[in-house]
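Milestone 3.1: sequence recovery, worked example.
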């Protein structure tokens, strides 16, 4: 057995799923319509931040952010 250096994590993984956590009366579908990032796309932080700013600009939220999650070998937002 030989030790190997860890491979660098993919900084721009392919997004397998998007989960919206929404505590407002606004329908999730309305939020989804503002997202240009879709499952199957490679993560583009600049594009995603533009999407989040667009959603924040709707005026229904105190905070809009995202996080990357790994579940069962899949990457999601």
């Amino acid at each position: 057995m030989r030790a190997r250096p860890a491979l660098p994590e993919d900084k721009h993984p392919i997004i397998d799923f998007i989960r919206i956590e929404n505590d407002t009366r606004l329908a999730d579908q309305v939020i989804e319509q503002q997202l240009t990032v879709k499952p199957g796309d490679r993560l583009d932080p600049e594009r995603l931040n533009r999407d989040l700013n667009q959603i924040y600009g709707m005026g229904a939220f105190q905070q809009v952010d995202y996080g990357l999650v790994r579940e069962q070998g899949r990457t999601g937002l």
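The helical segments are 28-34, 45-56. Confidence is low (pLDDT under 50) at residues 1-8.
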